[in-house]
Amino acid sequence: RVRRQSQQRCEGCHSLFGEYYCGICHLFDRDKKQYHCAECGICRIGPKEDFFHCSKCNLCLSLSLRGKHKCIENVSRQDCPICLEDIHTSRVGAHVLPCGHLLHRTCYEDMLKEGYRCPLCMHSALDMTRYWRQLDDEVAQTPMPTEYQNLMVEILCNDCNARSTVQFHLLGMKCKNCESYNTAQDGRCRLPLEEQ
Questions:
Q1: Are 179 and 156 in contact (CB under 8 A)?
Q2: Which of 7, 68, 70, 82 is disulfide-compatible with 107, CB 3.0–4.6 A?
Q3: In a 3-state reduction of DSSP, which class is residue 4?
Q4: What is the pTM of this model?
């Protein structure tokens, strides 16, 4: 019995099995500017010149992210927190959030229709500065009822992890450290000392 090696063309008629062929993965495909990444251990859709392999994240990323993303060790070996499917071997590109977590690009786009926070750590998934300034105006124009005007609450900021005591407001409570409204109440409401 003769064992034959996989190859791109038929030995008999020389027909091409696929425009792209990887002898390591034994992958035949149409040409999508694929390349084999030895560190990832699989073929990736390229072109190769547009990507680099981040050894800490253990994933090929767009060159535009070189030095501009937060690395989380082996983050690509986790499932997408939205669809719960593998990110590392997916044909759908990965989107790197500012916190360093990964989502499939399509899952990220769907997530933005419903909210703005990373589903794993609750950090803002995009720059919300403009929206926070709009919320400043809305808070200023929306007075609280008398019984809530002097109510103070302890908050935890999901963006910078700072804790602070701020005035309660139904529209949102602004972090004193980074000025984000991506906060959560971290304790009970209380009146200022002079009113207790």
A1: no
A2: 82
A3: coil
A4: 0.72
